[in-house]
Structures are given as C-alpha cells and as structure tokens.
Amino acid sequence: MTLANQIVYFSEREQTFDSIILYMDLDAFFASVEIRENPELEGLPLVVGGNPKTKQGVVSTCSYEARKFGIHSGMPINQALKLCPHLTMVRGSFKLYGEVSKSIMKILEYYSPTMKVAGNDEAYLDLTDVVADYEEAKRLATELKDDVYASEEITCSIGIAPNRILAKIASDSDKPDGLVVVKPLEISEFLAPLNITIIPGVGRKSFEVFSKENVELCGDLAKLPHQLAYQKFGKYGLKTWKLVNGYNTENTGEKFVRHERKSISEERTFFEKYNSWEEIWIRIDSSIDAIVTRLTVKKMSFRTITLKIRFKNFETYTRAHSLTSYNTSPKHVRVVVMKLLEEFEGKKPEDIRLIGVKISNLMKIDDNQKTLTQFFNNIG
DNA sequence: TCTGGGGTCCTAGGACCC
DNA sequence: TCTGGGGTCCTAGGACCC
User: Fold this and answer.
1) CA distance linking residue A143 with residue A149, whole number of Å
2) How far is A31 from A92, CA to CA, in rounded Å?
C-alpha cells in the first residue's frame, strides 16, 4: 500500500468518535497503601522497593513527597538516597496491595460492564453505552473517585476521552487526585503544549530521535505534514502523528478483548555470590518449577524456551530454542535450558549476575490435547 | 546512576520453501 | 550457476510499560 493510500484509508475510517473511555490510575499506589496502614508516614518522602539493609535494588513506587526530590520508579535505591538522605524505605506488602487492588476493581466493575484491568493500579472503563455525554461521564467519574476513597482511603486520577490512549494521557496530565476530560474537538488543543513523552510508548530513546528534529511537544509533531512525519520517524512516527492530530487509531471492535498470555517467565538477580554451577542450577531449577506450576494453573502448553543470562559487567544474552510440538513438562524445560547453558560453561559462575527462564509460544490446552501431550511426554 | 522483575511489541537477519 | 521475489518461521536484541 502506498503512503497516499494509507492516509486516505485512515482519514475515512478513523476520524470517528463514538466512544467515551474512562481511565483510572491509583495515585502512587503501593506508597499510598503503606501510608494508609502507617499514618505516621504521611507527608514523608517514602519509597517502596529495594532492600533497606543492603541498599540494593530499585524504587518500585514512591510518594509524591519523594518525587519532589527527583526520585522516580525504576531508580536505583542508592541514587535515591543520594537525592534524599532522610528517605524512608519500606520493602512492601505485596499481598496486601493485591487485596486492595482487587477490592477497588470490584467497585469499578459496578460502573461499567465493559472494563479492562490493566495492572494492579489501573483500569479502563468503556462508558459509551453507560452515559449520554461527557458531562454525565464527568459526574460519574466524580462519584467513582468518592467511592474508591470512601472504601479504601486511596486517591486516584481519572482521564476521560474518546479512546484509551487519550484517556490515559488525560489522567497522567493531572496527578494526584485529578479528573481531566478531553472531548473529541479539544484533542489537538489539549495535547499541543504537552511533552511528547507523555504518549505511552515514547520513552527516552524515542524522545532523542524526536528532539533531534526539533519535536519535543505533541504540538510540534502535529504541525508537521504527515509525509514528513513518516519519512523522519517511520511507521511508529506516523501512528503517533495520527494520535496527536486527533485521529482515533484504535480499532474500536477489539477495544476490550481479553489478551491471551504470551509468555511466562522468572528471572533472579544474584545478590549473593555463587561459586559453582551446581548452586546456580538449584536456582534455575526452582524457577523452572515455579514457571511450570503457573503454566499448569493456566491450563496451557509451551513450545519455546528462552534462557537469559547476565554477567557482572551487565553483558546480557538470551538464547532460545523452539520444540517441534507443544509441551507441558518441566523435564523438557530442564533439558533445553541445560543445553542452552552449555555455551556459557567456560564462564566463571561467580561472574553471573542474573539468570532468567521464559516459556513462550503458549497455547491453551483442551482435555483432548492434554492426554495426547501427556502420552507423548511419557513415551518421549 | 553501579542498574528489579514481570511482561509486550518491534525490528532485522537468516533459513527455508515455492 | 553469481542469482528473483514472496511468505513464514525462528532467533537475538532492544525499547518500553507498570
């Protein structure tokens, strides 16, 4: 398809705004739960994640007070402490976060039958068939925020817009405890002054590429002719160009379809030293067991096994192997991982920093296939 | 800056087939 | 033999998200 055809195609089909989507994001979720449980933490710069004793690891979530120091999630604990020496650190009560999250999602369910939970602390609601217009959507969102706070003492930020990406951007644009509505005709105006990195998918590297061409705000990209956006930034650039110009790039038919899981993995960074391959193999073994258990619970089978290995100098390699047929047994994972590991036998075990195992190419198994698979596993 | 863990998606090259 | 083109599958690496 030529570029010209592509443009015609999307302008005819995509510039329709028949949806009203609400996106909810819990504010500094893990940190907020910790503060709720321990009110004395209120107002302190607080991070969840990492090991407070060894000061290893990274920030998982941090309070807004901590953010004022420049701390953000993903930042090494060591660096966070440099920015804020009196930082309070907690390891995190992940089981509790899960429970709180579940109970909040239950509340959200009540607001729309069409909902997609996108993680511990975020969800999308399709309000298209629930409300008459954006005014009503806004009233409903206010109610929802009150409901969530009344039940769990956690604040959230909400964005309402004609598609999911914009709803998320709207929510991100005013945190914490925000409520931002972007109606179809307001999209360009709303996005124009915002930094291009507010778009999900535009991270550090993409920003570098954009800024080299003097594109830093959404408005800068929107102003370019679409041909130029495509020339300079490729396929993804054109997609982003459509978004900032208010085209709905979402296939509305598939909006809330449940995503089948694509992979199951575990990886562990070794903070302690291992001097023999045997000790490392024990860790790998337990990862394999955990992965296959999760696979069994999900009633799925796999075909591809990937080994990930990272050395002290952070050199990281992945090695994969695909089986000719779907499989469910930990035995086969072990054999393949062992085979993939052979390449690294010459390396010193104490130089290994991380080992990961992933299974992918997953397929749901019905009972028929299950007996067949077991049969082959047994004879294999 | 001494860098977690669970994921998804994309790209690019090579093998192989017709 | 000096050499096309389309399609698909596989692998490795990397960007990005929460």
Assistant:
1) 10
2) 9
Residue A181 to residue A30: CA distance in whole angstroms = 26
Are A246 and A161 in contact by the 8 Å Cβ rule? The answer is: no
Domains of chain A: 17-29+95-183 (3.30.70.270), 30-94 (3.40.1170.60), 184-256 (1.10.150.20), 260-379 (3.30.1490.100)
Let me know: does A77 contact A50? Beta carbons within 8 Å: yes
User: Interior CA angle at A243 toward A237 and A248, to 5°?
Assistant: 130
How confident is the model over A160-182, as pLDDT tens digits? 999 999 999 999 999 999 999 99
Q: How far is the CA of A284 from the C1' of C11 (A)?
A: 22
User: Is A216 assigned a catalytic role?
Assistant: no
What is the DSSP-derived secondary structure letter of residue A364?
E
Omega within 30 of 0 (cis) for the link into A113:
no
Alpha helices by DSSP H, listed for A307-366, are: 330-341
The model's pLDDT over A223-261, given as tens digits with 9 standing for 90+, comes to 999 989 988 898 889 999 999 999 877 755 556 777 889
- Hits for CB < 7 Å against strand C across A residues 197-216: 197, 199-207
- pTM here is 0.90
